[in-house]
């Protein structure tokens, strides 16, 4: 099986938890947002969950990949230490912070690294033939915004991206966490576009902490 990316959009900016130690790369300059409807003065956060092996892909040799992503996108990327896993998983946390535009570009760059340049893989994902799944956790309070009236918003995301977008039911939430699982399933460019559309929809609606 190829690498799997699980993403979490997080309210509350850069709050990552006081107990978790982080590996930190060099923070690059933050690009001006191309999305004029989103204030680029806001400091936002986005998380990916990756396996130990995939964390190595994100970091790169001597931190080269993580620094390259930061320099190109203007976001800041931090990764939880080896064996420091997100509760209930065996996945390490990749925390991406910055402006909305920088975070979206950073998340797309990291997902590209995971699926196109994975460490230890004999071959990479062919974006033209093989499907990937990006799994996101979205705040319960944003579910209505994502779905839209009569499902119009999520239908638009599916039509524009070409990926399958599925928001799990309320009952499937992890106990103690106020998020719902959302998956983007399709060829790599389509899955990344769907991820971007979901993030943009939440940001456009001005959800607190985003």
From TrEMBL:
Residues 42-116, 130-203 form the K Homology domain. It holds the Pfam family KH_1. One of its GO terms (molecular function) is RNA binding. InterPro entries: KH_dom, KH_dom_type_1, KH_dom_type_1_sf. Keywords: Repeat, RNA-binding. This is K Homology domain-containing protein. It comes from Hanusia phi. The lineage of its organism: Eukaryota, Cryptophyceae, Pyrenomonadales, Geminigeraceae, Hanusia.
């Amino acid at each position: 099986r190829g690498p799997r990316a699980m993403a979490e959009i997080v309210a509350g900016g850069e709050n990552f938890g006081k107990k978790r130690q982080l590996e930190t790369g060099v923070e690059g300059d933050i690009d001006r947002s191309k999305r004029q409807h989103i204030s680029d003065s806001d400091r936002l956060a986005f998380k990916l969950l990756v396996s130990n092996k995939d964390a190595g892909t994100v970091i790169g040799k001597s931190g080269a990949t993580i620094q390259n992503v930061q320099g190109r996108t203007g976001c800041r990327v931090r990764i939880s230490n080896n064996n420091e896993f997100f509760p209930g998983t065996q996945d390490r946390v990749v925390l991406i912070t910055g402006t909305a535009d920088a975070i979206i570009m950073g998340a797309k760059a990291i997902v590209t690294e995971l699926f196109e340049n994975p460490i230890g893989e004999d071959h990479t994902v062919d974006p033209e033939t093989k499907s990937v799944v990006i799994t996101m956790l979205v705040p319960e309070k944003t579910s209505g915004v994502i779905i839209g009236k009569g499902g119009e918003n999520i239908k638009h995301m599916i039509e524009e991206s070409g990926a399958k977008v599925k928001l799990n039911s309320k009952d499937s939430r992890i106990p103690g966490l106020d998020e719902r699982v959302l998956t983007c399933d399709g060829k790599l460019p389509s899955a990344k576009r769907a991820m971007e559309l979901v993030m943009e929809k939440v940001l456009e609606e001005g959800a607190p902490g985003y």
